[in-house]
Amino acid sequence: MGFLDALFGRSKPKQPDLDRLFALPSAAITLQAATGFVATGAGSVSFRAAEGGAFSAVQQDITALLDMDSGPKVEQSTDDYGYTWLVCRHTPDDMGGLVTDLHAVNSTLESNGFGPSLLCSLVAFERDDRRLALVYLYKRGSFYPFAPLPGERRDNALELEARGALAGDLNIEPDLSRWFPVWGAPGV
Hints:
single chain, 6-stranded antiparallel sheet
């Protein structure tokens, strides 16, 4: 930050730290111990798709990279708001592999100049017939829990319980107004 920035009260925006995604495997263990929620093996990355051949080529590279292992495990969809979701699937006990794939998608988009298009990444959990997602906000570098209920309602008590359980494992978003609902997110 320069002298004039300090003088006029401007600050540099917080830079995303994709390596924070690698805290999810240990957080999943904590979440299971505290709440009984277990990983489903599904995770996704949401971004605003750009027009043009360069972005299309990056998307194809990402899909080819993730599908290399043991057949297709990546799906693509578009939500009602125009965001593209790349959904990665692993076995529920392979949280490390899932997080590595999510990190690869984010970092590939970022390194090719499409970082500003990234919205969030999420990992899905379940207990009985209940769903919970841990959402990583790319631009904030923080996580928050999202617990959907039928009828586009949220289980706020469960979200706060998850926040309390994970406070030591993840950088939890302190501003609750930034805990945006991700209705209809694939994998949740």
